[in-house]
Write a structure and sequence with these properties.
Strand content: 15-25%
Shape: globular
Number of strands: 5
Radius of gyration: 18 Å
Structural class: alpha/beta
Length: about 190
Amino acid sequence: GQRAKLDHTAIAVCRSTATLPTIWCAEAYKLRDVTIESIVSELCRLIERYPEATVEIDSSSAGVIIERSLRLRGIPVRATVKGPKLRRIQQVQSKIQSGNLRLHISKTMALRDEAVTLVWDDKRKEHDPRCEDDAWDALLYAALPHIGEEELPTIPEHAPKPNSQAARDAQEAAELEEAYQEACRAIDDEAA
């Protein structure tokens, strides 16, 4: 038979209450040599441990497949919307520095290791490709719902010039997204 593709990922678990400003990162760790099935299994284990949790997942690549697998199992999952990464990093760093985002002392070592070794370009758009950022990205996704959308102002998108390559690319992306959403609806209808 054909072997499943092995990859790596990271998971972060954040918790908060409505009455306190503090966010707790209870766990953050990396997984190596994982398959989609093993990630789904790990997330199911965490949902049992944290029954009030939702799963925030990277909306790109395998995230879409994992999202569908979790939804079919009735697990609350939300694809994190791509957004201004620099602003999200600043929000998380600010919460950590102010003491309003606390990292478990021993269960977040992968995150702590990355935080001190991650090197970013001046605009914080890309990190040095030799630096791992899986745990840090997982924290950004996990903390975002606890930080609140009001603290992450939306950045207005600028429409590309008509008939430019950017406009054609945007149109193609919109058509692909519509086709994808239509396929998802068809799969959901078949599953129901």
